[in-house]
Design brief:
Blueprint lengths: L3 H7 L1 E9 L5 H11 L5 H13 L15 H6 L6 E6 L3 E7 L7 H8 L4 E7 L6 H12 L4 E7 L8 H18 L4 E5 L23 H7 L13 E2 L2 E3 L11 E5 L4 E3 L3 E5 L3 E10 L2 E3 L1 E3 L3 E6 L10 E4 L7 E10 L5 E2 L3 E6 L2 E15 L4 E4 L3 E2 L4 E12 L12 E5 L6 E7 L22
Parallel strand pairs: 1-3, 1-4, 4-5, 5-6
Antiparallel strand pairs: 2-3, 7-16, 8-9, 9-15, 10-14, 11-12, 11-16, 12-13, 12-15, 17-23, 17-25, 18-22, 19-20, 19-24, 20-21, 20-23, 24-25
Length: 444
């Protein structure tokens, strides 16, 4: 007889995020998922029941299972990203419940940046609103492979198929224009439990999966071993002891791909080449290592390598550049302006940079690009051109979410200003008008 631990270790893991406008029922949906999949401990449920009675509610308010901050419970909204871990016999889940208010859109970037699926909720009474389009745009920008449109509160529109069909058609058309690869629309009532875990008795016209059934069966690929191999150096290990007088190892986590002993590699940005002579994993030598293992690489040649350098296969090295073009989501309260001096953090490397240009800002209503906005404010999505003080080896975000992403940071106080995705933005958006910039006066 297999143990629960053995069963869980054999199941796959799905990371997914929920998003939607205010009062669309995200927290209630998450609470319903946890409750109906038997993933809530007895004392948690008792606490929720007690809190619900105290607030004068007859039935347990399942949203309280995720809205943990006092301000969230008082206002009945989600403010911060709430992570929840649960499992069924078929799959393990890491869920990021993201806020719905416009001013917290930036929190969705955190929650969805590592997600393989996004559940976007829509209130059946209101249909697709601006915040719905914003969340769809972010899911497309972050290259989330799967999207679920959960049309919630179907009980408040009489479980009408026509209401669901109209919303699903409008959203799917918009998402397709953005380049979202797959959209699955599901009519639900999170409060009543319709089509969340159990099929609804009120919507016999719907023959698709429930939310949980889709989460359990959607194909998920965690195999990054076939991607471009990338190893950001995090730490140089030099014990200089009697036992290891000449040991020089480069420690870090493999971001993508596979590395083997005997493989010729290149160190970026210097461009120096060498050969892997050893790989240490958990203190033991191995012949091959792959993402996301944390290892120490040993090279045949003594090369000046430090934190922030990138070790890649000599035959598959990305180009280095000091001119970065990317789409960013601005997450700070202070605006991002042309000419602003920032720090750019890419994997383990942080370099000085200057914002040379902000060619355009995305208008979510029609996906058009508003040229030359001059600045980006909180929750804006726009294109930027950044000049760095040192060369960087960025992949296109479309090729690698790990090595194609970066952060722009305020050098004065360390505040994160923007989350960036290198290369082209999502498919379907109209090209931004190019704005020429005078290079005079720049330090680098």
């Amino acid at each position: 007889m297999t143990s629960t631990t053995e069963q869980l270790s054999a199941t796959t893991l799905l990371r997914f995020a929920t998003a939607g406008s205010v009062d669309d029922g995200k927290s209630t949906l998450v609470g319903r998922l946890l409750h109906d999949s038997k993933s809530v401990l007895a004392d948690q449920l008792e606490a929720v029941e007690a809190a619900s009675i105290k607030r004068g509610q007859e039935a347990p308010d399942l949203a309280l299972l995720t809205d943990g901050l006092r301000a969230e419970r008082e206002q009945g909204i989600t403010i911060d990203v709430a992570y929840r871990y649960f499992a069924t016999p078929r799959r393990r889940f890491i869920l990021a419940d993201t806020p719905g208010h416009v001013q917290y859109t930036r929190n969705m970037v955190t929650g969805a940046s590592t997600a393989e699926l996004t559940v976007i909720l829509v209130d059946a009474r209101n249909g697709v609103v601006e915040q719905t389009r914003r969340h769809a745009a972010l899911a497309a920008l972050l290259r989330v492979p799967h999207a679920v449109l959960a049309v919630n509160k179907m009980d408040l529109v009489g479980y009408e198929e026509s209401v669901f069909a109209a919303i699903a058609e409008e959203f799917t058309a918009y998402a397709t224009e953005l380049g979202v690869p797959e959209v699955t629309a599901i009519p639900i009532s999170a409060l009543a439990g319709d089509n969340v875990v159990e099929p609804s008795a009120h919507m016999d016209w719907y023959g698709g999966p429930t939310v949980l059934e889709h989460l359990e069966t959607v194909p998920v690929s965690h195999d990054l071993t076939g991607c471009h191999a990338r190893f950001p150096v995090q730490y140089v290990i030099r014990p200089q002891t009697a036992e290891h007088p000449d040991y020089r190892g480069y420690a870090g986590q493999i971001a993508a791909g596979t590395f083997r002993v005997g493989e010729q590699v290149k160190v970026l940005p210097s461009g120096r080449t060498s050969t892997i002579t050893g790989i240490d994993l958990l203190g033991e030598p191995v012949d091959v290592a792959w993402t996301p293992q944390s290892v120490t690489l040993l090279l045949a040649d003594d090369i000046d390598i430090s934190r922030g350098d990138l070790i890649v296969p000599a035959s598959d090295a990305p180009a280095t550049t000091q001119d970065v073009e990317a789409t960013v989501c601005h997450v700070a309260d202070q605006p991002l302006t042309v000419g602003q001096r920032v720090l750019l953090k890419h994997t383990t490397r942080t370099v000085k940079a200057i914002v040379k240009d902000i060619p355009s800002k995305l208008t979510l209503d029609d996906l058009s690009q508003h040229p030359a906005p001059g600045q980006l404010v909180a929750n804006d999505i726009g294109r930027v051109r950044v000049r760095t003080a040192e060369p960087l080896a960025l992949d296109a975000y479309a090729d690698s979410r790990r090595t194609g992403s970066f952060l722009l940071i305020d050098p004065a106080d360390g505040t994160t200003l923007a989350a960036g995705m290198a290369g082209e933005s999502f498919a379907g958006a109209k090209a931004a008008a190019a704005v020429e910039t005078d290079d005079e006066g720049w330090d680098f």
